[in-house]
Specification:
Largest sheet: 8 strands, antiparallel
CATH class of the largest domain: Alpha Beta
Oligomer: single chain
Strand content: 25-35%
Number of helices: 15
Length: 572
């Protein structure tokens, strides 16, 4: 299967046979199979990942293949079920610390691990050093690591000498040479907040540069490589789709009109939102000037940007080769609240690619209140999506939304969610509709513009009661759901065990606990034990797991105070 091409449906038929065969795959096919392990059901995903790991045998080579969040999640699941794996080559994969974190729990299994020529920093190297086994050999040269002491400590022991990543490549002649080599790879991009003003109802961004260097706009993600002093003005403009009628490309992001004096800017980094390694290689930059479109060859592609050398300025954007393969992109969910009348309000829900500026959306819908929440998600191009909520009474329109990359700067909402004006918080979920529903985004949403929410005060350590008002059972259900989201699968398995064998509270039969998701467990706990007792039980279980970290205690603390389980140390 080294050079073959197959559809997702065809490869899905291969999974039942994987336990009986050994595969020799090209990297593209390997990535495709790994991504197919991400099924709707957890049990089905585990079964596919286990079958694939057996078929791959002792070696996995993904070198020179960009690996981003979604592919690292899939690779992590395969590594979790790998029993015979000895060699893992992830060199030249553009791995960052956050992607490495997804793989760390499983890297101790590998005898020879190659992480060279990536974007791992001191922080990632420190976490890696903590999980390395003595018998492992790890290559980690040509990363963004500047503190060599992280691995020198391991070199000092004869038993762990071969973990020192430079020895097998003869790079330990002098510490100064190695240190200097790393210093050259330190990122020097400076972030800036652009000046924003309006002209003809359009946002104009402005950046006044004082020195040479690379500067990233916080609003748009654009990075400018400047030769020295200069002023850059830029805005989002409309695409003319006629440019794509006679070529094999399509838009992959907003079209920016960029203006500055000739010679002031020499590099332009445009953000993209691709997650697939193969698709990133198909990304180019379009330069539109005087009615013609020129395709520029990128000098660099990273997990977030495409870089080109530029001579003249006008309109620039990322474009991709047209293709029929299934594409996943980094997306974002934006929320805007609109009071309709005294009894009803509406939440506008936008599904957008990550390289669309949220500033543009907020400007276009300035009459509504922007609701702050974590927005990142993974979306499938041309995928069908639906929305659900934790509310008992609500209406959604439309029922289904087909996601597509926005090519026009006039962005429209995906869903409208209607509910009572008395609601101050709710849970919103975005599901992808395939053979079964797969949740792509799930957040607790606080409608801080609602006057009914004034009875509680948000603090870093949690939500505390204000005046004589008390946290309610409904507050507790929402908080308990957030708390369970912080637990790993292993913690949840232990929690179910404790719930059926607990002696201080009425135990819950395992038959009721089995196959219950987090929301169903919340309903079961409150139904079985009531408000106060379920708080006490949760307090007991978290100490027994143990989970006494800030992520858990900050959620639990207000309820512990309310029921006298702990004393409030300070007044908020």
């Amino acid at each position: 299967m080294l050079d073959c091409q197959a559809s997702d449906d065809a490869l899905l038929e291969l999974f039942p046979a994987l336990r009986y065969i050994r595969l020799s795959l090209g990297k593209r096919q390997l990535l495709q199979l790994m991504l197919l392990t991400q099924s709707v059901g957890e049990r089905d995903s585990w079964s596919k990942a286990k079958a694939l790991s057996r078929a791959l045998g002792k070696e996995i080579d993904l070198s020179y293949t960009p690996l981003y969040f979604f592919t690292c999640v899939a690779l992590g699941l395969v590594l979790q079920h790998s029993e015979d794996l000895t060699h893992l080559n992830l060199s030249h994969c553009q791995l960052t610390d956050s992607c490495l974190d997804l793989l760390l729990p499983h890297l101790h299994k590998v005898q020879l691990l190659d992480l060279s020529n990536n974007d791992i920093t001191d922080a990632g190297a420190q976490r890696l050093q903590m999980i390395l086994a003595r018998e492992q050999t790890v290559h980690i040269f040509n990363n963004q690591i500047t503190d060599l002491r992280l691995f020198m400590n391991r070199q000092s022991s004869p038993e762990t000498y071969h973990n020192w990543p430079w020895t097998s490549y003869g790079c330990v002649d002098t510490e100064m040479k190695v240190s200097t080599g790393f210093a050259k790879r330190i990122a020097t991009v400076a972030m800036f907040d652009p000046e924003i003003f309006f002209h003809d109802d359009k946002i104009i961004y402005r950046f006044d540069c004082e020195i040479a260097g690379e500067f990233q706009c916080k609003a748009t993600g654009l990075i400018f490589g400047m030769r020295g002093r200069g002023c850059v003005e830029y805005k989002v403009v409309h695409w003319n789709m006629c440019y794509f009628s006679k070529n094999s490309y399509e838009p992959a992001g907003p079209l920016y009109n960029i203006q500055t004096s000739i010679g002031e800017m020499h590099l332009l980094h445009l953000p993209h939102c691709e997650t697939e390694a193969d698709v990133v290689g198909d990304i180019s930059v379009a330069h539109i000037h005087e009615g013609t479109m020129e395709l520029l060859t990128p000098v660099k592609r990273t997990s977030s940007h495409v870089t080109v050398h530029i001579n003249g300025l006008s309109n620039f954007a990322t474009v991709r080769k047209k293709g029929s393969m299934t594409r996943y992109v980094r997306g974002q969910v934006l929320l805007f609240l609109e009071p309709i009348n005294r009894i009803e309000q509406r939440l506008w829900v936008f599904l957008l690619p990550r390289n669309v500026s949220a500033t543009e959306i907020k400007k276009q819908h300035h009459e509504y209140t922007s609701i702050k929440t974590s927005s990142d998600c993974i979306l499938r191009q041309k995928g069908k999506y639906c929305l659900s909520s934790s509310l008992k009474k609500y209406k959604v329109q439309p029922k289904t939304y087909s996601f597509h990359d926005a090519t026009d700067p006039d962005y429209h909402s995906a869903f409208e969610l209607f509910f009572s004006s008395e609601v101050s918080e709710l849970r919103v979920r975005i599901h992808e509709k395939r053979n079964k529903l797969k949740t792509r985004w799930n957040r607790r949403v606080i409608l801080n513009s609602n006057e009914n929410h004034a009875s509680t005060v948000k603090e870093e350590g949690g939500t505390y009661t204000k005046g004589n008002s008390l946290l309610t059972e409904q507050n507790w259900k929402s908080s308990l759901c957030d708390l369970l989201e912080e637990l790993s699968k292993r913690d949840l398995k232990k929690l179910r065990f404790y719930m059926k064998d607990v002696t201080d509270f009425k135990p819950i039969p395992y038959g009721k606990l089995e196959k219950k998701d987090r929301q169903e467990l919340v309903d079961l706990m409150v139904e079985a034990w009531g408000f106060q007792t379920s708080v006490q039980a949760t307090d007991y279980f978290m100490k027994k797991l143990p989970r006494n970290d800030h992520a858990v205690t900050s959620i639990l603390k207000p309820y512990q105070i309310q029921f006298g389980l702990i004393k409030e140390s300070r007044v908020h």
